[in-house]
Amino acid sequence: MGGPRPPEGGVTTAAPTETVPAKGGLGLGAAIALVIGNVVGTGIFLLPASLAAFGWVSLISMGLVTIGAIAMAVVFGRLGARVPAAGGPYAYARDAFGEFAGFWNAWSFWLTAWIGNAAIAVAWVGYVQYFAKQVFGLDWGGTGTAIIIGLVGIWIPALVNLAGARNMASFQIVTTILKFVPLLFVAVVGLFFIEWANFGAFNATGGNVIGAISLAGAVALFIYSGVESVAIAAEKIKDPARNIGKASVIGVLACAVLYMLSTIAVMGTVPHDQLVKSNAPFADALNHMFGGTIWGVIMAACAIASGIGALNGWTMLVAEMPMAAAKDGMFPTAFGRISGRGVPAAGILVGTVLTSVMLLLGYASENAFNTIVLLASFTTVIPYFFSAAAQIFWLVTEGRKVQVKRLARDMTIATIALLFAFWMAYGSGAEAVLGGTLMLLVGVPVYIWVKSRRNEFGPRELQRG
């Protein structure tokens, strides 16, 4: 690169070797907490039960998804150094492929954020129900009660975010500690209680192994959704060119170890038939390890804290992406307005309302969690695919001379990330791909409306040419 790109490219970007001044208030520790807090939501607390339906072949899926997630973290780090701007995948796609590609990525991630929050809420509800029954003897198992609990869990983080970014960051660090420690406990101690008979069949789907791996992988992908968190919130990160990459990779590696070990521990301690039907698999795992219910109650309490923390971080991201796009004239202007507390209040409120609607639709389906997760997985991989493609684009078209070994390394990582995103789109299943594609197409009229409101006709890069 050697320096800023010329204006006809549509966007001026800094070379990756340049030092970008600190703009935000979140240091490396807080940035790592944001990644872990968003990646480790309540999805992992329900995931072993969801994956058990596929058999322990799903552990292969988790391994492949983990490799892809690490590759994506590295790609986001490279792109974050090149374009340390708010919006992450939106900014990368816009910079490489033009404004419409940027808009579509912003739209897709925005869909992912509020759809995914509904999935987190569904998993969170299961642990609230478990806790209420074990501690207070309350039977909150009905659908109506579950919806009310879910709505409470969705709106509490919204209020925290509306109170300001500093409050959000403190809340995130505390909830990250509360969930990471007990999960690590199960991941380590649970390995000593594993019984092979509990794992059940290798492929429990009755179909072919490749199909089972792909579908289980799409479900597993959701637990890594959030690897792009610090890239999207770049303007809130100190020294983003340096810390985006570090926080993304460190956060994903920490989560990867935790995920693999804890899932193996739960599958090996809870009998397969019971695990498939469980609403609180980690709580059941602890009860099987030590007997009684007190350990399960403690885990349920930690899962409840985890869910609130994840919803807190994702509620911020629901608003950050459209805010970055709105500042560039790619989203309605209301999403770009900042409240007196320094937060994009309109984005938070609109996203939370849509999450609430998605929660209601999810509970109308047979399996609320898997239905929402697969849809969110498809919309997630669209920005991932374009981000990996943007990295390949810059590696191929870069004008300055680079070391052959470094180019080969970066190209290999970017290609793995690209293939990973493509595979995950396929693995989401026909229903999720159809629904997600229709939701993506709805964004096109929105793009047209935004452009017409600004009296802009044609892409900006052509107007500037």
Quick overview of this protein structure:
With 465 residues, the chain is mostly helical. It has 18 helices and no strands.
How is the quaternary structure best described? single chain
Q: Stretches where pLDDT falls below 50 for ≥5 residues?
A: 1-23
The shape is globular
Could you tell me the radius of gyration in angstroms?
Answer: 21 Å
Please report the distance between the alpha carbons of the first and last residues: 21 Å
Per DSSP, the total helix count is: 18
Order of helices and strands: HHHHHHHHHHHHHHHHHH
What's the number of extended β-strand segments?
A: 0
Kindly state the mean pLDDT as a whole number? 81
Residues in helices, as a percent range: over 70%
Helix/strand-derived class? mainly alpha
Q: Beta-strand level of the residues, as a percent range?
A: under 5%
- Biggest beta-sheet profile: none
Question: What features would you highlight for this structure?
Answer:
single chain; 465 residues; mainly alpha; disordered N terminus; globular
Task: Tell me what you see in this structure.
There is one protein chain. The protein is an all-alpha fold and 465 residues long. It is built from 18 helices and no strands. The chain has helices at residues 28-39, 43-52, 58-82, 89-97, 99-136, 143-162, 165-189, 209-221, 229-232, 240-269, 272-276, 281-290, 294-327, 345-363, 368-397, 404-427, 430-453, 460-464. α4 (89-97) crosses α15 and α12 packs antiparallel against α13. The relative contact order is 0.20. Residues 1-23 have low confidence and may be disordered.
